[in-house]
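Need a sequence for this fold. Nothing fancy.
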């Protein structure tokens, strides 16, 4: 962490949950965001700074996700989505300054209710008026309403980035981005914001937004190098409406860089709460034997597996930040990132969300009924991971898109065919085992698509008939790269402790734990192909028990690997005397 004082920001009374309005908890959320913005602001956006500023932004997002997932949601939309679009697409300096100072809270309005996550099909229109040199923003029907941005709280100045299809002289020029103020003093004429009912998980001021002849000045078109001359001549350096739409939709990369950091941090915080709690919580088995929960093998599998997933998610997240937040020199003249890079970022978002979601779910399961209540934080972390199954791009759709690219494109090299030979008595090469299954699924999918093409079948029908296989292939690819991420983590030293030799083995065993759990559901598949002997396949479950037993004495050291400051962990389960804290 670049600034050791950052965790102290979360000790402020504004983070005391007892001060929140139960009917409108987002009022407290926005006070928290204002508190953080005021104390971490700089002359310009952190996103536009050098490596130190971007590291500080990532640290801030991680800590906020640990302290308050709803505040994290608002903060990343403001600091990364809205500010990222403003910087990357060439906003007026005055608007950039408004976002950087926190005078206006940024928002993102792209998704429309009638098309779900199909942002390439935006139907909101921005018609250019050559006389006024303005754009007229219109929602053609209810299905094109923007849903569900968190902009329903009245009186809070917002500066929203709105995706709309640009029409110049009746010609569709693709989806472009515009800055539109909401609730700036008086409501913006023509903007209708309909607050939606309060939601239980990740409660914010969600709304549906429609535009009826909203006038947007030329300077608030995030033109990205495009222009319209005084005579009405349109110029776009990209030269194609489809490329312009892809460039605008690619704005999501700023979200992926932030969301992955927050999801991984929430997973680490969940383990940092649940793992020590399991060591303090007493249990009694069916024979009346009393022991701490963490001595039970089922708890060990849940929590040590959660720790492995949280660390893997962190490796993914921290590996993509610089790429996801990359800004072209000067801003406002970019072509965006290459399609291959965008695909890798999208797949990383899916991988991190899946790993984080499972890590938090395991922590909740380990904590029993206490894991259900918001005062113990775990269910709020689960709300964040669940929200991003669809938010920031639908995970299943992005997995299928990745499978299509890997099966039909030239930006993916499948693992070698064959696989590792089964060696009696030797530990399997776990990444090679996972790679073998990935390659087998790749071969099945590509062979099926080739056979369909040879038979003259429609490519769309052939693909949709094999979506299950495509998704299985994408999941197999993710399992391999997740294990490789933990393999990379094990090669770096962690914090020092009492037992140097034992601590050095912890990352190795966390790697082994994640790998065995990835292989175990498909043990019969590996045995049938001779990649594991029958005895080795049957021994996988025993191997999990043995790994957990080796990790048990190092639970405290494992918690230190999670990098969760005590200042941001709140709730009774995180305290030393959870019985007192849950009952007083």
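Here you go.
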């Amino acid at each position: 962490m670049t600034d050791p004082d950052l965790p102290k920001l979360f000790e402020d009374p504004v983070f005391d949950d007892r001060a929140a309005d139960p009917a409108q908890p987002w009022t407290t959320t926005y006070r928290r965001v204002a508190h953080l913005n005021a104390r971490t602001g700089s002359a310009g956006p952190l996103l536009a700074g050098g490596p130190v500023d971007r590291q500080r932004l990532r640290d801030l997002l991680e800590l906020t996700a640990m302290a308050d997932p709803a505040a994290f949601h608002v903060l990343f939309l403001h600091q990364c989505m809205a500010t990222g679009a403003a910087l990357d697409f060439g906003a007026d300096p005055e608007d950039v300054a408004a976002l950087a100072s926190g005078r206006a809270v940024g928002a993102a309005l792209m998704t429309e209710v009638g098309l779900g996550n199909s942002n390439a099909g935006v139907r909101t229109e921005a018609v250019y008026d050559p006389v006024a040199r303005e754009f007229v923003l219109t929602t053609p029907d209810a299905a094109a309403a923007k849903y569900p941005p968190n902009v329903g709280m009245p009186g809070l100045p917002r500066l929203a980035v709105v995706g709309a299809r640009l029409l110049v002289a009746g010609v569709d020029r693709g989806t472009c981005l515009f800055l539109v103020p909401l609730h700036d003093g008086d409501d913006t004429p023509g903007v209708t914001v309909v607050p939606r009912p309060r939601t239980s998980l990740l409660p914010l001021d969600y709304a549906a937004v429609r535009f009826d002849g909203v006038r947007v000045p030329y300077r608030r078109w995030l033109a990205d190098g495009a222009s319209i001359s005084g005579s009405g001549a349109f110029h776009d350096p990209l030269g194609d409406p489809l490329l312009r739409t892809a460039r605008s939709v690619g704005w999501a990369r700023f979200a992926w860089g932030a969301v992955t950091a927050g999801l991984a941090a929430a997973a680490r915080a969940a383990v940092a709460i649940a793992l020590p709690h399991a060591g303090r919580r007493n249990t009694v088995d069916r024979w009346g034997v009393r022991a701490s929960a963490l001595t039970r093998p089922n708890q060990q599998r849940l929590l040590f597996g959660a720790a492995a997933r949280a660390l893997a998610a962190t490796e993914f997240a921290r590996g993509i930040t610089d790429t996801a937040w990359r800004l072209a020199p000067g801003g406002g003249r970019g072509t965006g990132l290459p399609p291959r890079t965008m695909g890798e970022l999208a797949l990383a978002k899916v991988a991190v969300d899946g790993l984080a979601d499972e890590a938090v779910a395991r922590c909740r399961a380990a904590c029993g009924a206490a894991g259900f209540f918001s005062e113990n934080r775990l269910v709020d972390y689960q709300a964040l991971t669940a929200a991003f199954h669809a938010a920031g791009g639908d995970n299943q759709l992005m997995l299928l898109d990745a499978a299509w690219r890997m099966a039909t494109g030239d930006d993916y090299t499948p693992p070698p065919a064959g696989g590792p030979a089964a060696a009696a008595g030797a530990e399997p090469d776990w990444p090679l085992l996972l790679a073998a299954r990935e390659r087998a699924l790749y071969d099945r999918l590509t062979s099926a698509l080739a056979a369909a093409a040879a038979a003259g079948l429609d490519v769309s029908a052939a693909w949709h008939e094999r979506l299950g296989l495509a998704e299985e292939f994408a999941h197999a690819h993710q399992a391999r790269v997740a294990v490789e991420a933990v393999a990379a983590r094990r090669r770096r030293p962690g914090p020092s402790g009492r037992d140097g030799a034992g601590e050095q083995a912890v990352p190795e065993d966390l790697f082994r734990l994640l790998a065995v759990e990835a292989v175990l559901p498909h043990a019969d598949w590996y045995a049938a192909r001779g990649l594991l002997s029958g005895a080795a396949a049957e021994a996988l479950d025993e191997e999990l028990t043995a790994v957990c037993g080796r990790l048990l004495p190092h639970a405290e050291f494992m918690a230190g690997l999670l990098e969760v400051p005590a200042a941001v962990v709140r709730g009774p389960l995180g305290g030393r005397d959870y019985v007192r804290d849950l009952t007083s």
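For context: The first strand starts at residue 105 and ends at 109.
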